[in-house]
Design goal:
Order of helices and strands: HEHHEEEHHEHEEH
Number of strands: 7
Helix content: 40-55%
Shape: elongated
Structural class: alpha+beta
Radius of gyration: 49 Å
Strand content: 5-15%
């Protein structure tokens, strides 16, 4: 009689837990990828731990405090560690709504991950979105970064202005020397008229070339 009852319960559970069944979720684990040489084998003990973690999560949902490990069913377990699971309500012989299960898993996702030394990428609930990691505060306040950028821009601008002023002063200092050199060359030029070398007129000092002076002009003082 007990054997027949167990057979009926098993048959009912097999109908409730099937791939793509209503309220069923697929789980995929990448233990080797996550742990490498420290990877552990997936066996009945690990399955029991998974059921316990799901039951633990469901017990935190209002009106689901009576959930037991036996209420979590696993099926279609593969060697590459993937399987389906459902949570049942034994009083009514049906699965709990997917919305409740999903909410419970999301709220306790970190606890489940830590139990298996995995994360959201290596322990995947395919129909349950991954939990978002809490935002990390930057090590340096944002206002300091903005202040540093503005300060650097101001320093660069001041440096460019100083360099521009130095270049302009150098150009101004070079221009008069060029003019003086031209005047000196003009003063040193010697003209030749009628075969007689003549000094040009000194425009600065009012010097007159004596070659063109008459006898009276030479004797008459200026």
């Amino acid at each position: 009689m007990l054997w027949l009852l167990f057979f009926l319960v098993t048959a009912i559970h097999a109908e409730l837990c099937q791939p793509d069944a209503e309220n069923a979720f697929k789980v995929r684990l990448s233990i080797r990828t996550a742990l490498g040489d420290k990877a552990y084998a997936w066996d009945t003990n690990e399955e029991y731990l998974f059921k316990a973690m799901v039951a633990f999560s469901m017990r935190k949902v209002p009106n689901r405090e009576a959930t037991e490990i036996s209420h979590v069913l696993l099926c279609n377990v593969t060697q590459r560690v993937s399987f389906w699971f459902v949570v049942i309500d034994p009083s009514k012989n049906h699965t709990l709504p997917a919305v409740e299960v999903q909410s419970a898993i999301r709220k306790n996702r970190n606890r489940i991950n830590n139990a298996f030394s995995l994360n959201d990428q290596t322990l995947e609930f395919l129909k349950i979105p991954s939990t978002l990691a809490p935002p990390t505060d930057p090590s340096v306040p944002i206002w300091i970064i903005i202040f540093g950028v503005i300060f650097c821009i101001v320093i660069v601008a001041i440096t460019l202005l100083i360099l521009s002023g130095i270049r302009q002063r150098r150009r101004k200092n070079k221009e008069p020397s060029g003019v003086d050199d031209t005047e000196d060359k003009c003063e040193n030029m010697i003209t030749i008229e009628n075969g007689i070398p003549c000094d040009p007129l000194d425009m600065k000092g009012g010097h007159i070339n004596e070659a063109f002076m008459t006898e009276d002009e030479r004797l008459t003082p200026l």
